[in-house]
UniProtKB/TrEMBL annotation:
<keyword id="KW-0560">Oxidoreductase</keyword>
<dbReference type="GO" id="GO:0016491">
    <property type="term" value="F:oxidoreductase activity"/>
</dbReference>
<protein>
    <submittedName>
        <fullName>Short chain dehydrogenase</fullName>
    </submittedName>
</protein>
<dbReference type="InterPro" id="IPR002347">
    <property type="entry name" value="SDR_fam"/>
</dbReference>
<comment type="similarity">
    <text>Belongs to the short-chain dehydrogenases/reductases (SDR) family.</text>
</comment>
<dbReference type="InterPro" id="IPR020904">
    <property type="entry name" value="Sc_DH/Rdtase_CS"/>
</dbReference>
<dbReference type="Pfam" id="PF00106">
    <property type="entry name" value="adh_short"/>
</dbReference>
<feature type="domain" description="Ketoreductase">
    <location>
        <begin position="6"/>
        <end position="182"/>
    </location>
</feature>
<dbReference type="InterPro" id="IPR036291">
    <property type="entry name" value="NAD(P)-bd_dom_sf"/>
</dbReference>
<dbReference type="InterPro" id="IPR057326">
    <property type="entry name" value="KR_dom"/>
</dbReference>
Amino acid sequence: MELREKVVVVTGGASGIGRALARRFAEEGARGVVVADLDGSGADAVAAEIGDAARAIACDASREDDVVATIELARQAFGPVDLFCANAGVAVGEDEQVADEVWDLAFAVNVRAHVIAARLLVPEWLERGQGHFLSTASAAGLLTQIGSAPYAVTKHAAVAFAEWLAVTYGDRGIGVSCLCPMGVDTPLLHGAGGPGGGSGSGGDATRASAVVKAAGDILSPEAVAGTVVDGLRDGHFLILPHPEVLTYFRQKGSDYDRWLAGMRRLQSHVSGID
């Protein structure tokens, strides 16, 4: 899809990839960009950077009432939503032992928020015969995340939901793309993993961050936003700012046991226990 004259909603838009997406979409000529974030003042700041073509709203993407209000703001200010970017995310928890509320938070923001947005928008998009859903998942959703079970599991689920949307509605005018980067220079990478704290506690959280930083180049959010614009224009489902992710994904599929053994070696190396 082309961004010119489109109406866009970006959740998690106050910082990182979300902020870069909102700014780049405006530069591409979007008619209007709604910057939605739990951090309402941060969303206000990004909208102010963009100017008249933007609006801001405090929004918990995992709460349906908040998403309804966000979509309605877009509609009133600019018109029906053409592109919804389910970009809000959290990186919380370590292993299977973390408390249920940590798992619940990860599923609420990384998965259920996507379901809520699609539930609200797909019927309208089917009537219009057009619309596009962009899911910010992660390379962890195609591979895994050493050091954080909740992140790995929920990002896999986000990819799976995006796949399902693409299969189910791809021939009915609805486009779907899934953004799966590795390391990006965002608050999430540096420990601001979720509301009220970082990506976990103790060695496993440090290990998760170390793995990401060691796996490949750390890209700027602006570079990722550029890749997203190109991917949307070319109609790609998988948008991979780090091209090597596709190589790793193919290796995983061609020999799962060998790939698992390699990931265990990487885990041992990063942990300093090999």
